Amino acid sequence: MSGLDLPSGFDLLIRGGLLVDGTGRPGRPADVGVAAGRLTVLPPGEAPRTGAAEVIEARGRVVAPGFVDVHTHSDGVTLLGASGGGSTLVRASVLQGVTTEICGNCGSSLFPALPERLPAMRAETRITFGGDVGAYADFAGFAAAHAGVPRANHLASLVGHGTLRAGVLGPVDRPARPDELRTMCALLDASLAQGAAGLSTGLIYTPGSYAGTDEVVALAAVAARHGKPYVTHLRDEMSRVEEALEEAIEISRRSGAALHVSHHKTAGRYAWGRTERTLPRIAALRAEGMDVTCDVYPYTAGSTVLAAMLPPWANDGGLAALTARLGDPAQRDRMRRSIAEGVPGWENTVGNGGWDRISVACAPRHPQTEGRTIAELAASAGADPLDVAADLLVAEAGEVTIISHSMVEEDVRRVLAAPYAMIGSDGVPKPGGRPHPRWAGTFPRVLGRYVRELGLLRLEEAVHKMTGMAAARFGLTGRGVIRDGAHADLVVFDPATVADRATFTEPLLPPAGIGAVVAGGVVVVRDGEETGARPGKVLAL
Ligand SMILES: [Zn+2]
């Protein structure tokens, strides 16, 4: 044992497992010791039978870095507390082995905003998250709010461009004036300096969609100065996905920021198969030396809000303005026409697919609609689907979550297999209803279905996509790899049984095969059950 810490100094020993260290290198037998929240890799068999406060036997199991979920919408879920159904939702992430969540995606975060915009923002986030999660002037305020709520795993946040824009201009459909853009840059700069992970956009969602390319270039240049990425939900993931990817490439080139494409997909019947063009484009850019990556979730269905199925003009002015328009039959007819004919620059999910591919995930006051498609609801009511959607939005005060069955398996597999694609759940943990099962199943599903059953990825490759690759992209120093001195975030799983069990009807069922999870050197999951320990932190990057 010469040259190693005394085994008796370890708080925890994980013994007898196959170490898959997160770098992509082949797994090897090794023991892992944890002391004061840091790792030591021990040659196999050298760890004595005693000498640690706690021992986890890992024979036949894989010991990997804790998973980094690079794409979540979990910004506020722990702030809801148990009263908001928070605990069941919160648990789902850590039970699948996630030790760090990155929120603030798709242009939506809980900060920043000018002080005078905070009350309006707080009202919006109360609706979005199904409870009072607050709104914060900057990353420091967000981190302080989270510091008061114990959590099992760690949380990092991007700065959402839509939030930033609404936090300066309000939710309005017009270009930012030069002084407003300067203010947006200053707020972004401050939050990035405090530790936010990068800049995200959601260019299909209002109010982010009201921004032109130049505005985003100016903001991405601020991220570039901090060495942080530009992370984007493209302006179109359907029939115009290639043009939208070109816009993102232009933003990255002009700003100097690294580009990360969120939940890359080519959805809707006109775009199926288009990953055969987008992925070679990204690969060619990488070969030229451009820093471009993406993430993906292992499902052919997406999830978003029902209001995003309506044309952008319908959402101009925010929720109150939308609700007023939905009450006007003439405006409804105009929405119907926009969906049938399309609007330049608008993704138009329903026009690309149909109301039969859109099912209700969460409508708290109308649970009988959950799990049914808008087309089914319309048929049984003898009504037009747009009217059914509009009535539901009005009755739910604008907040209805949907699941959109919009992709084909071949595209999902191509993206999963891309060597620069990491794993992100895109989970939307909101109380009530039937959320997309990806929040509880993403990581075990990749390991069970795409590694073990289909052989699409090697185990080490898949783990790298969930750990080392993700940590490198988002600047999670000392995480995502198992090596001496690294942070002790770990997962122990059974490669023979690991599998997702969450489904569209039972979306929060915990996975099989995830045995133990360690965050910050503390065991937070043992034998597949939460221990109740809460060592998680907000990470300032
Ligand atoms: Zn998104």
CATH class of the largest domain: Alpha Beta
Rg of Cα set: 23 Å
In the CATH classification, which architecture of the largest domain applies?
Alpha-Beta Barrel
The number of helical elements comes to: 18
The CATH topology label of the largest domain is TIM Barrel
pLDDT averaged residue by residue: 94
> Which ligands accompany this protein?
zinc ion
Low-confidence residue ranges: 1-7
Rough outline: globular
How many beta-strand runs? 23
- Give the N-terminus to C-terminus distance in angstroms: 35 Å
- Which assembly state applies to the chains in this document? single chain
Percent of residues in helices comes to 25-40%
Helix vs. strand class: alpha/beta
Largest sheet: 7 strands, mixed
Strand order of the largest sheet: 3-2-7-20-21-22-23
Describe this entry's structure for a reader.
With 541 residues, this protein is an alpha/beta fold. It folds into two domains: 67-303 and 406-477, Metal-dependent hydrolases (TIM Barrel, Alpha-Beta Barrel), CATH 3.20.20.140; 309-403, no CATH class. It is globular. It binds zinc ion. Zinc ion (ZN) binds next to loops. This is Dihydroorotase. Residues 54-525 form the Amidohydrolase domain. Pfam families: Amidohydro_3 (PF07969).
Note the topology.
Elements: E1 10-15, E2 18-19, E3 28-29, E4 31-35, E5 38-42, E6 52-57, E7 62-65, E8 67-69, H1 86-95, E9 98-103, H2 118-129, H3 139-147, E10 154-157, E11 159-160, H4 161-169, H5 178-194, E12 199-202, H6 213-225, E13 230-233, H7 241-255, E14 259-261, H8 275-287, E15 292-296, E16 302-305, H9 312-315, H10 319-326, H11 329-341, H12 349-352, E17 358-362, H13 374-381, H14 385-395, E18 401-404, H15 409-417, E19 421-423, H16 438-453, H17 459-466, H18 468-474, E20 490-493, E21 514-519, E22 522-526, E23 529-530
Parallel strand pairs: 1-6, 2-7, 8-9, 9-10, 11-12, 12-13, 13-14, 14-15, 15-19
Antiparallel strand pairs: 1-4, 2-3, 4-5, 7-20, 16-18, 17-18, 20-21, 21-22, 22-23
Residues 106, 202, 233, 262-263 line the site of zinc ion (ZN).
